[in-house]
Specification:
This protein has 12 helices and 9 strands. By secondary structure, it is an alpha/beta fold. It folds into 2 domains: 4-156, TIM Barrel (Alpha-Beta Barrel), CATH 3.20.20.30; 216-262, no CATH class. Helix 8 (180-196) links the parallel strand 8 (172-176) and strand 9 (205-209). Helix 6 (109-124) runs parallel beside helix 7 (160-169).
């Protein structure tokens, strides 16, 4: 088992680099920064850590192909990957609250993420590529400047269709905020899908994003935890049903406004 840490991407590059090197010294596997509308650019913000670390993996979570074209994601990721000598990693997802703020209504999320992964992987080969997907097309693209080993491509996946798709094209998945019962079911779905492609864990990286808000100031930690609780996908009846009674699920779903002012 490996442990990664997610750092605040609003932090300055110098702070991210300092914390990332600290994580490296203590043997952590990787560092992630979120791709948020109000954050610094996650790729550029990791540049200093990329240059001043030697082992730890690093990358953004979760980038989506709806607000950024897959070719531009590939270019940014592969640039970071060159800076860190092949240690870059990324989570490609179907988009979340950021798309709502931009009034973008994503369609065919699973297909879009699949084509994004395909395009990034093809671009990372350094070969000239032409890609004719159902949603994205690329003509005569070749990144001649690549030298480092290809980065690790993970898919943000918790539901059946995304899990099955990721099993066939990605290097791994990252689930988010999954209690034991639905997580166990998701792993079962993933294992069956991997087997159908002749693949197996642990060669396929299976990760779980769990929120821990760590600050020296307890009140600051509580404030951040409460703020993010509203946005961390809790208003999903199928998820709540794993640890709440039907009446409590109904109460939570009817009380969404109260969470905003908690």
């Amino acid at each position: 088992m490996h442990i990664d840490v997610i750092l605040d991407t609003r932090s300055k590059p110098q702070e991210l680099a300092e914390l990332g090197r600290l994580a490296e010294r203590f043997g952590l596997h990787g560092v992630w920064v979120s791709s948020l509308l109000d954050s610094r650019d996650p790729f550029a913000n990791l540049g200093l850590l990329a240059e001043t670390s030697s082992r730890i993996r690093l990358g953004p979570i979760a980038v989506n192909p709806f607000d950024t074209h897959p070719v531009k994601i590939a270019s940014a990721l592969l640039t970071l990957n060159e800076m860190c000598g092949g240690r870059a990693q990324i989570v490609i997802g179907g988009g979340g609250e950021a798309l709502q703020a931009l009034d973008i209504r994503p369609k065919r999320r699973v297909r879009a993420v699949r084509e994004c992964v395909d395009i990034i992987r093809a671009a990372a080969s350094g070969e000239r590529i032409t890609y004719a997907g159902e949603l994205y097309r690329v003509k005569n693209l070749q990144l001649r400047w690549l030298e480092a080993a290809a980065p690790r491509l993970l898919v943000g996946a918790s539901q059946v269709q995304m899990l099955r798709m990721a099993a066939g094209c990605a290097d791994g998945i990252m689930m988010s905020d999954m209690p034991v019962v639905p997580a166990t079911a998701a792993i079962g779905t993933l294992d069956l899908a991997l087997a159908s492609h002749g693949r197996h864990r642990p060669d396929f990286h299976t990760t779980m994003f769990t929120a821990w808000h760590v600050y020296a100031d307890r009140q600051q930690a509580l404030h951040e935890a409460r703020r993010w609780l509203l946005l961390r996908g809790i208003f999903r009846p199928w998820l709540l049903a794993g640890f709440l009674t039907p009446d409590d699920v109904a109460l939570v779903m009817a009380s969404q406004a109260a969470f905003a002012s908690a």
